[in-house]
């Protein structure tokens, strides 16, 4: 009986290990936002933080690139380098830099709300540029539109409506309200620009995935480029040694935490989850970090919680879940239809194969975390399943 119970426990743990991994990712994201908020409020220079963070990230990603994708580094042409340079510029310097400035002027909860709007912004950009189709005649298309509208309504509610304010802890903050209002307006502008930069970044990622499909090598090169870009732009803004100095304090802890855990460890956990459960699965957990951050920030940093922010958070979470569920169903339908078409059509040369640009951008970009080994295993399993079906027939 004991052995049977142990086997049942092991099976339950195997089933829930991906869930635990994604909860760990959200816990890491929560810690990152709170630590970043604290050190930025104390005057840490944004570009110094970004430069040091990506130095640590480069050192963590380098072993994966050199062990699994060593030969891919020889295939970096000037065209590939240009696109990787643009990814670093839009996805790190602009998107992450503007987010840090917005986080400095607002709160961690407020800033994280805008991170949850990135899938919606990417969807709008891809629809306007005709990379994706809206498909309003389908049920999934209608649900996507409703989800996007709910997210937009939530963002407007958080920005424009405050309502009754209350605190969880007694560690209340007493600051100048006019200064807070000015900072909130400026921070909101930074966060909106950050969301738009992230949307552009995802679209550029779609291009790079075609010309240079080596995920670890591309991440390694992007981190190196981002480090150089951060140093150059940072020195143009502030050359004081004090701004670039790092002491044995919370600032150093945040740098190693963001580089090792928030970049390298999260990369590995998401790649594992995508290989096990599919590309949309990790995105479904993103709203949890918003809840974690709101609770911990109110409890430990004394930030206020307003009725408007709670209503806005609820609308964003419901809208994002609706959007991602519809996106997942749409992707499943597209894959099934493509499989049927492939079986009906005559075989073609492998060199003629191309990526369908109508496949949802976020799902395809989430798949970038898959390692070559995992991808090869998936291909082998698909081939074996097809052989079994043929033998049964």
TrEMBL record:
Pfam families: EamA (PF00892). One of its GO terms (molecular function) is transmembrane transporter activity. It is a multi-pass membrane protein. The keyword Protein transport does not apply. It is found in: Membrane. GO terms for cellular component: plasma membrane. The chain crosses the membrane at residues 45-68, 80-102, 114-131, 143-163, 183-204, 216-235, 255-275, 284-301, 307-324. Keywords: Membrane, Transmembrane, Transmembrane helix. Its main location: membrane. Residues 24-159, 186-322 form the EamA domain. Residues 372-393 are annotated as: Disordered. Belongs to the drug/metabolite transporter (DMT) superfamily. Plant drug/metabolite exporter (P-DME) (TC 2.A.7.4) family. This is WAT1-related protein. It comes from Nicotiana tabacum. The lineage of its organism: Eukaryota, Viridiplantae, Streptophyta, Embryophyta, Tracheophyta. The gene is LOC107801710.
